[in-house]
UniProtKB/TrEMBL annotation:
Signal peptide per UniProt: none
GO BP: response to antibiotic
A GO term, aspect molecular function: ATP hydrolysis activity
Annotated ranges, domain ABC transporter: 8-242
Pfam entry (one): ABC_tran
Entry-linked CDD domains: ABC_DR_subfamily_A
InterPro entries: AAA+_ATPase, ABC_transporter-like_ATP-bd, ABC_transporter-like_CS, ABC_transporter_ATP-binding, P-loop_NTPase
One GO location term (cellular component): plasma membrane
Protein name as catalogued: ABC-2 type transport system ATP-binding protein
Provenance organism: Saccharothrix texasensis
Source taxonomy: Bacteria, Bacillati, Actinomycetota, Actinomycetes, Pseudonocardiales
Subcellular location: Cell membrane
Keywords recorded for this protein, A-Z: Antibiotic resistance, ATP-binding, Nucleotide-binding, Transport
């Protein structure tokens, strides 16, 4: 459930490396408890955007506020309220999972508030990321997907109010992916955590995100719910039917009227009717092709 409070506020963000601009005037907001997915082709600027918001990169221009604070000048207290999932726990191979989480949690205890108990209890946290059976295992014995779950647990140990996830489910098997999606939805629903994630998995974006922001060539080319984007951009549904023993396929904008008309003309002669609405994948591909061809974004 989202409230009106703006937690991420990005206005006119620009990033330049040498003489190359990689982010042009990026503007978006996320509200308290909202899950926002950043989508876009390789090199679109997703990681750069998320790293500026995490306070790990200095922007070239624009205004950025995370929990009301500019990440470029934020202190320890702000950092304790922000969760970042890094892939940096590979070097702690001799540590055990619960032991590492307990150790890292100590740092957050002085940032506990009346509302937010910090740190997250290590046993509850290993359960939340599905690592209970490996809680006493040494990190070097974890599988790739289990290490990635540990990365997520490390990002969560301080019960962050905002969580940044850069391609979080790379290397997850389908079960781990499903559990991770439930974890993120649960964080947003129960803890009102605001989540910004990047992904190349359109299915993941559709399942997880309240809103999707599509970046291409450093510019925002679409911003809305998966349904809004589909309606605004792809617009065409696929209708398949059989008539007089012949299979037909048509792509139409107004499929309901088209189907009415089909039945008016052929009545019971229509069999095996299927209507497929434009998926997020159709929408995304149509959008990226349009941008590549130099057309206006939707
Ligand atoms: N340190 C850097 N110096 C120069 N150019 C950089 C640097 N980091 C990123 N870039 C460039 O900035 C652009 C955006 O990169 P970024 O990593 O943000 O894209 P991305 O959308 O996350 O891509 P991917 O999906 O491949 O991870 C790319 O053209 C990249 O080459």
């Amino acid at each position: 459930m989202t409230s009106e409070r703006v937690v991420l506020d990005v206005d006119g963000l620009r990033m330049r490396y040498g003489t190359t601009d990689v982010l042009h005037d990026v503007t978006f907001q996320a509200r308290h408890g909202e899950v926002l997915a950043l989508l876009g082709p390789n090199g679109a600027g997703k990681t750069t955007t998320i790293e500026v918001l995490e306070g790990f990169r200095m922007r070239s221009a624009g205004r950025v506020s995370v929990l009301g604070v500019d990440p470029a000048h934020a202190g320890e207290e702000w950092r304790a309220r922000v969760g970042v999932v890094l892939q940096s726990w590979r070097d702690h191979g001799k540590w055990r999972v619960r032991e590492l989480l307990r150790h890292l949690g100590v740092y957050f205890s002085c940032y506990a508030t009346d509302r937010i108990a910090r740190p997250w209890d290590p046993d509850d946290l290993v359960a939340a990321v599905g690592l209970t059976s490996r809680a006493n295992a040494k990190i070097r014995t974890l599988s790739g997907g289990q290490r990635r779950r540990l990365d997520v647990a490390v990002g969560l140990v301080g019960r962050p109010e905002v969580l940044f996830l850069d391609e979080p489910t790379t290397g997850f098997d389908p079960v781990a992916r499903r559990e991770f999606h439930e974890l993120v939805r649960g964080l947003a629903a129960r803890e009102s955590t605001t989540v910004l994630l990047t992904t190349h998995d359109l299915d993941e974006a559709e399942k997880l995100a309240d809103r999707i922001v599509v970046l291409d060539g450093g510019r925002i080319v679409a911003d809305g719910t998966a349904d809004e984007l589909a309606r605004r951009i792809a617009g065409e549904d696929e209708v398949r039917w059989t008539h007089a023993g012949q299979r037909h396929v048509r792509h139409v904008r107004a499929s309901t009227e088209f189907v009415h008309d089909l039945f008016r003309r052929h009545g019971d002669g229509i069999t095996e009717l299927e209507v497929r609405r434009a998926s997020l994948e159709d929408t995304y591909l149509s959008l990226v092709r349009r941008v590549e061809a130099g057309g206006a974004a939707g």
